[in-house]
Amino acid sequence: MSATAIAVRRPFLGSYRKTAVLVGVLFLSATATFAIGSGLVTSYFSGEGGQTSTLSTGVLLEAISAIAVAVIGVAMWPIFRQYSERLGGGYAALRIGEALMIISAGVYMLATKNDFAHYDAFIYVFTASAGLIFSYLLYVSGLIPRFLAVLGLIAYTSLAIGIPVSLIGDVKLDAGLGLIFVAAGAVFELVVPLLLIFKGFSFPKGEPREDAGTSLAPEKPVGVAV
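and the corresponding structure tokens:
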């Protein structure tokens, strides 16, 4: 391969390697902080942990999760826009919307000391929608092994089905039969972040093109072998 091609590729791969690590860490952080925070909030309103500090800590952890979620959307935008500007922008917008929903619910609960009924289900509407776009773009781009992208599509479709079930029936998505709807997502949001942290993205079809068109197939890499 020519020296010119190597010089062009290195900055690209280096910058997106850092993005992969960042996104992986943020995914794990968002999942952990929301799970713990949600547990504390539930504990407060169930009467098991009546201290105001329990609610405050839970809301704070959820707010940290919200920030992580929003940053994931922004961080993935430069990569996703190379494959679909519309879907990449939609993913970022949904992630930011998810973050705002989390923070808004937390502010309401802190200010009123009242439970926000089914607030997690409303948050999951953003999670499922963004997750489907995320998995689809990962599938068509080949940025991760496609079987994992398919797992993501299954996981977020299952979550989307579980949302109305939890709202209509007496089913919680974090316990009992409700776990069926989130099990695949739990695996996906553990395996993929670890993959990104330790391996990064793969670009089997070459680098994404420089312009921000809407084609899902990136152009051939810059530079040719001589």
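(Above: one complete record from the training split.) Confidence is low (pLDDT under 50) at residues 1-13, 208-226.
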